[in-house]
User: What shape does this take?
Amino acid sequence: MSQKVQNNIIYFTENSIKDITLPERFTFPFYYEPHPLTIVAANELQHYLETQTDLDHNFGLIKNQQGIVIGKMFGVLVVKDTEGKLGYLSAFSGKLADSNDHPMFVPPVFDMLVEDSFFLKEQEILNAINHKVKEIESDEKYKNLKRDFAEFSTQAAKEIAALKQRLKSNKAYRKDLRARRKNNIPETDYARFEAYLVRFSHYDNHQYSLLTNKWKKNLDEIQSELAQYENTIETLKKERREKSAALQLQLFEQYSFLNKAGKKKSLHAIFSNTVFGKPPAGAGECATPKLLQYAFLNGYEPIAMAEFWWGAPPKSEVRKHKQFYPACTGKCKPILEHMLEGIPLDQNPLLVNQGEGKKLEILYEDDSFVVVNKPAELLSVPGIAVQDSVYTRLQAIFATIEPLIIHRLDMSTSGLLVVAKAKEAHKHIQKQFLKRTVKKRYSALLSNVINGEEGEITLPLRGDLDNRPRQLVCFEFGKKAITKWKVTERKDTTTKVHFWPLTGRTHQLRMHAAHESGLNAPIVGDDLYGTSSNRLHLHAAYLEFTHPITNETMKFEVIEDF
Assistant: This one.
């Protein structure tokens, strides 16, 4: 453990960082390999978390521990102090044990929980409004009125519907009576007969009016009493909305972020020009913005950063204890773009063509389509920053023919792709994909030894709006995702499996492999849901579909090279 702590800097000992050179540029926070200095800092912080007794927080690391389990993202920022000495700052995302004030950790950008803060005062007012609303909604007379109104409405609807049916039968009876007696009654008597039928009709209408008016009067009386309660509730709720919106705006202005040049920018200003239009919930509470803010306030020079997860994972996400993760894109990217302005950063790997120099192998070609073996890290279609892709390479090869993409593979996934050369072939094969008659099999190397020999995973998925392109398991809004799997080989620390995706969701195989309710074993090299390696060990090994012209069954297989 580092020996000296001053102004929240934990200074490194000489032995702990011996032979480690400083990075030339600051960490690119959204895609990085932890620098050795941050690994030393993270190890020391993790040792503190393992041995501390002051934090009253359930991270879910103790078996059978009761209460709400909340793992946390922690961050470290290696800095030089004003004298050039090297150390690191620590922070956590959000709050810890319902508090912002903990030794070893930098304070938040704005502490809304400080005693007598405007936030707590406004919260008291909002809580008082909530209490009033609940008090009215739990009033016995109000509840009885609501119950009576519901019961009377149901009873009124039944009685009116029954009367309508009876009146309909009466009308049909009168119509039938007219038809049968019209030619059998003398003309002088028919007028009296018709007058009788008219009075019969008027009587029915009068009965209907009496019944509907009776129920309208009864329901109006109850509704009038209910309205007094509901108008009060709506007035209180409107006041709550207005006060809540004003409080949120005030909070956005209080969260003011510095950068190297000392320029301040509020949350509201930072997010006003984004697709969100306003800050998402929790923006500004993540570890890295807290760390940079404290460094700039105290004149420290940021050297490198890293964030790691500590504790049990959320039910919806893939988070592994002690594993490093990039900063989130939805909440942190706009903030960090401002805070890191003017600081030289490591290159964004997503702007580099990772597929350059990798061979695209053509396995089969005719007038209808071509089947290729895509290398890992080559895009299927052009990206925003990188144009090199299966599409552009085939475009160059075909010269006069436009490649028609039917399906895609993730950039990091290798394997079989079929690309149409004619519109009819494209339409025919695409329909096979949509009808799920195309047979696909993937091979993957998993980072753990898993139990069982085969099975099926059914975890619905949706995009993580705060952290694209990551996916979440979501049983409420997620789309159905089904994967069959079978073990093909086990080694000391890894398992090789075959995957058959029965649906085609984004990152389906990666999520189903990594999530604790799936196989709980990230694919080797999965830098989103696991840890990076020389490549993502996921390969589209087998593809079978019907030829659009000959109706012949076309089968292709390429064995993985890992």
Summary: The mean pLDDT is 91. Residues 187-254 form the longest helix (68 residues).
